[in-house]
Amino acid sequence: MNRFAFIIHPLDCSDVARKFHFARYMPDTLLERTLKILPPVKISPITGIQSPSAATEGFFVSCLLTARQMMSLPTPFVLNKIIQTARLAEKLGAQVVGLGAFTKVIGDAGITIAKNLNIPVTTGNSYTVATTLEGAKKAAILMGHDLKKARIVVVGATGSIGSVCALSLARDVNHLTLIGRNEAKLHVLADRILFETGLAANVTSNIKSILRTADLVITVTSSADAIIEPEDLKAGAVICDVARPRDVSRRVVEKRDDVLVIEGGLVEVPGDVNFNFNFGFPPRTAYACMAETMILALEGRLESYTLGRDLTLKQVEEMHKLGRKHGFKLAGWRSFEKPVTEEEIHRIRQKAMIKVS
User: Please, which residues bridge with residue 7 across strands?
Assistant: First the structure.
């Protein structure tokens, strides 16, 4: 049996307090100073993963830096903390390790981390893209959108996940807009899309005006703060938020009952799975980036599968096939830690239709 590990970290100080009770009584500034000097820790074992042809087990290990610290502290310091965490995984017997949340975006997206280990590393981005697109398309159709006629927007389009999402969507849609901070890079991506698919994608850095016309939004930036607010969206819009921390403000679901916000990359893991750690999902449900690490262990592909920022459609499609082979499947939808049923999507669609009329 091949074993894996997955690196997690607290998004903010409240996450630390959920796991370590002493943190509840510390001011955030003091707690973050403490986290800087603490070593990595094993969080929990993961057991019971069983596909039709193989089994695997693993564990969560944590780099105890918050998202804010990962983005603000010197990159070499943060990378060294992540490498220490991955070395703990090695010592515990992992044969492949996955990078979660901000550990996958620091520096060169896993390349330096892999060079400092004796086991392979993956960001999980290939399977994240595959499941994100599958879930977003299905949700858009349930909301009444015809993908050929709908206006599609990818926010953070020049990133490793965003660019491949845009390339894949370009094969199925007629109206695609790419949003990012670097317009030069956006134009390079648009030229590639035109060459490979024949679709002329629009390019802009003006996120607010474009969002107000969008039917389906895939957002996958590395921003530490929310960038999409309730007033930015049209009635009936579907927003698939792949970013962690989220790109979509919680105010959107509080103020707008006529738009659908879903999280990208959630899958059901095969077997009698026990994560022994509550990260807000139903039983047997995990992020797709976690699942990619499990799939590599089940398949015996002990290799650094998704590293760096040059993700390819070939990788995405292969990982999607391997996921199906081992019994992984889309786990429906979630929105801010709550499940979203097809019945709820129907209600949101009805409210959007009333507002539009």
Answer: 61, 99
CATH of the domain at 187: 3.40.50.720
Rounded CA separation 29/351 (Å): 43
HSE of 73 in the Cβ direction (CA atoms, 13 Å)? 21
Both structure tokens of 216: 């389906």
Q: How far is CA 47 from CA 36, 108, 224, 283, in A?
A: 30, 31, 32, 12
Count of beta carbons in the 10 Å neighbourhood of residue 101: 19
Per residue in 44-88, pLDDT (tens digit) is 999 999 999 999 999 999 999 998 899 899 999 999 999 999 999
Query: Do 238 and 160 share a domain, yes or no?
Result: yes
Cut 0.70: pTM above it? yes
The closest alpha carbon to 304, from 121, 129, 153, belongs to 121
Query: Residue with structure tokens 């607290």?
Result: 10
Q: Are residues 48 and 187 in the same domain?
A: no
CB atoms within 10 A of CB 142: 16
